[in-house]
Amino acid sequence: MRTTMTADERKAHMRERIEAGPPPGILYYADGQPVAWVQVGPRQDVPQFNSPRTVSRPLEEEDARDPSIWAVSCFFLLPKMRGRGLSHRLLAGAIDHARRQGARLLEACPIDHVKQSKSVTLCIGSTAVFEAAGFETVAMRKDGRPLMRLELRG
């Protein structure tokens, strides 16, 4: 859907998501300026995460429509902020946000930094960051790209 939108349409779409709630991500500020972002929200709000042809596809088809299953799908850090452990803090904030919004499960499909180290691919997060936060691999559909999951409530 988003790939067929113009820049103005994408901005309007994001504004509508923010106004409708819950917010689709967490911003990190330094010196009063936004310097990093993590996208986190219900899986159903991230259509590209649910395509049956992607490594991030849900374990069960109905998981894509379950509002209690959330996904961490994108990180962005200004270049000057990289290498400072900020991804760990962003992920901790995303976990807290998902838990406060009532999510039951939080999923991600990061990349194994050891296997593929291009910084452009790390916008989806590093496996090591998710492992450190307690995520476990639930599927491995492509070498170096696990589908990981964290249970937020019993």
List the keywords.
154 residues; alpha+beta; Aminopeptidase; 6-stranded mixed β-sheet; 3 helices; 6 strands; 23% helix
How is the topology of this model organized?
Blueprint: H1 7-20, E1 25-30, E2 33-42, E3 69-77, H2 86-100, E4 105-108, H3 127-132, E5 136-140, E6 146-151
Parallel strand pairs: 3-4
Antiparallel strand pairs: 1-2, 2-3, 4-6, 5-6
Quick overview of this protein structure:
The protein has 154 residues and is an alpha+beta fold. It has helices at residues 7-20, 86-100, 127-132; strands at 25-30, 33-42, 69-77, 105-108, 136-140, 146-151. The protein contains 3 helices and 6 strands.
Structural commentary:
With 154 residues, this protein is an alpha+beta fold. The protein is 23% helix and 26% strand. The chain has a single domain, classed as Aminopeptidase. It has helices spanning 7-20, 86-100, 127-132, and strands at 25-30, 33-42, 69-77, 105-108, 136-140, 146-151. It has a six-stranded mixed sheet. The longest helix has 15 residues, at 86-100. It holds the Pfam family Acetyltransf_1. InterPro entries: Acyl_CoA_acyltransferase (IPR016181), GNAT_dom (IPR000182).
